Amino acid sequence: MIFSLATGAEEALCIDILNTHDIKLARKLYQFLNPLDILLGDRAFYAYADLVSIKNRNCDTVFSKHQARKSTMRKGKIIGSSDKLVTWHKPKKCSQGLSKDKFNALPSTITVREIYYIVVPGFRTERVSLITTLSDTTAYSTLDIVGLYGQRWDVELDLRHLKTTLGMDILRCKTPSMVRKEIYV
Hints:
Number of helices: 5
Helix content: 25-40%
Structural class: alpha+beta
Radius of gyration: 18 Å
Largest sheet: 6 strands, mixed
Shape: globular
Distance between the termini: 13 Å
């Protein structure tokens, strides 16, 4: 689901079978992005192909970095105390659920901005790494991006609270068409 951070309204929704990975569903929703939108997401959405695809739509991203991607502040162009520009190279093989033609069409590199910050005590992790295509440090300060990502977390909490309050945290309908109606509500 894509929400508008400005209004809280649901912008687009995709439903599929239970064992469909979130990234496959998310890729179906990219068509609803408007130029200059900024897509916020968790570490499941940071794949190279997705960054390129969203950037090609004249949109930007702010995602948390997946724990499998290792990097340090020593690599890349340092632009702040916890901020750097890094060049990512296209993966050697197509393992991101893309067709061979789409994978071959990807550029060989993309430059992203990596931001490290320490979260407020009480959260799961102590240090978070964000990956963003917002590379202009004048227009988008490190604190602005960290704050924006914090709002993404608030949306998740608000959605969970809404579902629980309305008694919709468990879907009770039996048929696929009724489950869809329950989700749309």
